[in-house]
Amino acid sequence: MNLTVKEICNATMGKLHNVDYGDPIKGVSIDSREIPKNCLFVPIIGENFDGHNFILEAVAKGAICALYEHDFAEMNNLTVPLIKVASCRRALIDLAILMRSQFNGEVIAITGSAGKTTTKDMTASILSKKYETLKTKGNFNNDIGLPLTLLNLQPQNNALVLEMGMNHPGEISLLSNISLPKVCIITNIGDAHIENFGNRSGILKAKAEIFQGIQQEGTAILNGDDPLLAGLSTVANMSNIALTVYAHIKNDSSKISSSKKNVIFAEVINRNGFMGTVCNIHWNIYGIGEGQTEALIPLPGDHMIMNALLAFATGLVLQVDVDSIVDGIKSFQPSGYRMAMSTINGVTIVNDTYNASTLSMKATIDMMNVAEGRKVCIFGDMFELGDYAKNLHSEIGRYASEKIDLMLTVGTLSKHIHDSFIAEGQTNAVHFDTKEDFLQHWEEHIKFGDTVLIKASRGMTLETIVATMIEQLHKSE
């Protein structure tokens, strides 16, 4: 980012207060605790906070300009340029649109009910072999996070990988029209946030908003094993899309061959436990051609194979050479609290606490079939399921009953996981109402040699129990 105060005023339709000293703005921050050199501070107003209360602190730490949407006590004591706007949140979007108009590189947008962050990380790892690639940091995937990512573009960047999340209809449409992607990826359609959409068809329609800002002659890359995505064209305007590629995981029941056009598919060669899966990947894509190669996907589970296929196809479309794509998949690092594995004092901890949906819960349960020792799940509540919450939690318990040796549940909704697990004839299950209760008793249930998967929705913050478990396991070494 390199903008003048005048350019910021013009983009946001803002009114300048104080003198413009003419120093270029090199970055943007919404957090007064993190103020890069020569940055613009944007005070976001939330339900329980007002960023205007931190403008003075931001300036003291080095911000050289700030937006504001209402007067604040210290404004007349500041000498840096202040720009009054109708809405700071909207101004952030307007600045991102300006930055996007100045960016001539490749833009890739990714959404889905599960797997979008891992697919983002894999895609960025692949593209970094050819491009100077910037990707969404952490979960900056909403109307604040995505603009901040765009505003972090540097002159050397020529590829941008953006994750797009949503809770309500219209959110992805906004993000797509800000970012104007060339390639759009949808990982799957599940139940996440279903309380706001009525059913999966409503979720499909909302996810398909990703195509509303796609460039002419754009590319769609889709999970071809997801039955809803197979009918995507009936709910989305895909007139700007020149190429649609479907990814598949081949098994005994599937009828996929490299002679089928615009597909990429994987045949499993070897499952190496938590070391990952070796696959033979085939593709036949219009304008790219036909080929195959062997690749190691460094995390276990078929859901990781699908994530890798979607990222692999993106690399092919953007003309990354095959060897570099394979290396990019092998060397990718997942984001925090996603499949973070550690073994302490004979217990293997799989920390996948970042978020959860029914799709991702089932995928990680399936992944546990490669675990050595007892297979243990510590599951917390899944949120934003509305009237479906009881049934979907119960579904997880039933699904796990033939695959998991011990089920420990924490929270309110997860009691339905526990109850359905027991109802299927399993006896090794314990429910804890609170994290505090769990932490008092977990050592009574975990044994040497166990593999323990911990997962829940973000609001459960189960990473806190992971940290305590690891600390206590180290002490007992």
Q: Could you describe the 3D structure shown?
A:
- The protein is of the alpha/beta class.
- It has helices spanning 5-12, 55-60, 88-101, 116-127, 145-151, 171-179, 200-207, 227-230, 302-317, 322-331, 358-367, 389-400, 415-423, 435-441, 463-475; strands at 15-17, 27-29, 39-41, 65-68, 82-84, 106-111, 133-135, 159-163, 183-186, 218-223, 241-249, 263-271, 277-285, 289-297, 340-344, 347-351, 375-380, 406-410, 429-432, 451-455.
- The strands form three sheets. The chain has a nine-stranded mixed beta sheet, sandwiched between helices. Strands 15-16-20-17-18-19 form a six-stranded mixed beta sheet, with helices on both faces.
- It is globular.
- The relative contact order is 0.09.
- The mean pLDDT is 93.
